[in-house]
Structures are given as structure tokens and as C-alpha cells.
Amino acid sequence: MALWATSCSSSEKLFLASSAATKRRMGSRRRDLVHVGMTDQAETETISIGYKEGDRERPKWADETPFSRLVEALISFKPFYSLLKLGARQVLISTAEKNNIPWREMTKEILESDVYKELKTIQNTSLQYPDYYLSPFHAYDEGNLSWLAAAEAEVATMSMTRRAIPYAPSNEEATQEMRGNWVQAIKQHHMKHSGNVTIQNIVDIGCSVGVSTRFLADEFPSAKVTGLDLSPYFLSVAQYKEKKRPPRKNPIRWIHAAGENTSLPSKSFDLVSFSYVFHECPERAIIALVNEAFRLLRPGGTLAITDQAPKSKILQELSPALFTLMKSTEPFLNEYYLTDLEERLREAGFVNMKTLLTDPRHMTMTATVPHQYV
User: Fold this and answer.
1) What is the pTM (predicted TM-score) of this model?
2) Domain boundaries 60-369, corresponding CATH code
């Protein structure tokens, strides 16, 4: 079982009180997974939120086994791949509809809006896409470079959240658990290791349609937040949706660029975030993204990665049918699971690596740029 514990500020106590109340409402199914405890000290609160780990470092279906190779061969057979692609898409849509997430209505609303006008204001027409990014992703032949993928991205994220946290009483509480635990892991790591460096500048690399970016902007309202992505379609939706919200004191900046080479100034950020990005990348891209994050962060700055958890008991015990569907829409999933991510961070120069299961299927890994880094 993964645990996380440290001291919290008064603002974090408000979240924890709300989170504890939510978890009490979740009933006995949750009691073996989560514990929230408070010390007697007036200004100190210690928390531990744990989710079940499996017995292995990673799922056996990600290892180089005869069965894993058979699955890869099946996926490479185009007629069968087409069926798998449709099946994987239907799993997400079915999960959404069973949980009162209006997949078709939300998609239609985007596709029939003025979102297309945002493209010319955000697209970098001279950008060269990495070869891996041109692969089919998530049952879309064009990968992330299409309006349909962009229109469905947020509702697909909502569906993914419900699959990860099916016991939550509502979609809102599922989101609060997933995103809330993630941001608290970031806050607590930064509080412990930054040397009192305030988070004033944030870049969310691989921001998609801005779900994680908006969450960070809400949690750090005094910070200047940048959302960066390779898909101009995703960024168009992000910008369009942000314009529908009340104006922020610090408006989010959206940038169309490669995460491996952002062209942003060195040592200009206190937090670099990757949310559900690395499982879509080959290892060489993961290494390049980590190195770029190190360059972008100031000494004492925090790197935060949240993604699928190799040690998740649920993922390790997926049925053959489900992991075959999952692998059929994620061409680099095996590389992600076989990558020693903490070692890649260490090689880039990061210190204070910590990995937590922040929901039953996903982990958050945090690390620090050394204070003596020049």
C-alpha cells in the first residue's frame, strides 16, 4: 500500500476536511483504502492516503512474455486492430453514459461551436511534429491531430476518471478525489523540498484541452500558468472553453509547441507538470521531456508527473480482454511501463523523487531541481 504523509498549511486542511467527508460518504468499500489522521498539534496535520499496490513492479502483460508478444501480434493485424479500436472506444462511451456523462451532447456542443476560429490564433504552422506523435492514438487514426479527438477529450477524461474511481457517489466527487490528491501531492512535495520557493510560474506540458491546466490555475490563483501542447486542435478547445469562464486575475497562456523543445526561457518556472502524457510516449521522448523540464525549472522547483501506475493492483490484475483493448489504443504503453522513470529523473539531475498512488489506477511522481544547481 502506498502512503503519503507530511505537514499541511491551513488552506490544505480545508481540502482535507472536504476530502475526508467525501470518503466517509463512500462507505465501507473505501475503508480499506483510505485513512485520514490528524495529530494533536495545532498547526500540524499528518495525512496518509493509500491505495492497493500489486505484488509486482509492473503488470506482467507489459513484460516481454510470449503472451505479451501474442497480444502485440494481434494488434498489428489491421482487421483485428480495427475491431479492438472500436471496442476500446465503446468502453469509454459506455462508462460515460452509465455515469450520466453526456458524451454525445458535449462532443456535439464543441463541434457545432465557434471553436474553429481559435485555431488561427494559436497554431504554430512552422512546428515540426515528432514522428511518434503522428501515430494513431485513442482510436483516432489522426491521433491527437483532429477536431473529433479534441471535441471528445474532456468527456473522455471524465469517463477515465469514473473508471478509475467507480465507487465515488458522483462524477464531481470522483474528479475531486483524483485531481485533489494529485494537487495535494504537489503542494506537499513543494512545501517540503523547495526551500520556501513560492509557486509563481507553472507550465503544464501536454495540457490537452486544458482540464489539468485549469485545475492548476484554480489551485494556484496567484501564479502565472501556461498550457503547452502539440495539438493545435486541443489548444483551440482549451482556449475556447477558458473564454467561457469568468476572467482570471492571471489569464492562462496557451502555447502550441513540442514539450521536448518548448523554446521557453531556462529557469523560468517553479512547477512543471505532466498529466497523463508519458504513457503516450516512447522512452526516448520521455527522456527528452524530463530533460526539458529540468532546464525550465528554477533551483528548488518541482516536477510533477501523474500517469498510469505500474504498481496499481487494479492495473496488474486487468483481464486479458481489457489490457488488450487498452494496448490497442496506446502504441507506446509497453515502453512506458518498462521505463524506470525515477532513474530517468535521477539521470537528468532531479533529486527527492517520490512516487505515490493518488488514486487506484494512477500515481503521482514528484521531484526537485537541486538548490545548488547553477
Assistant:
1) 0.85
2) 3.40.50.150
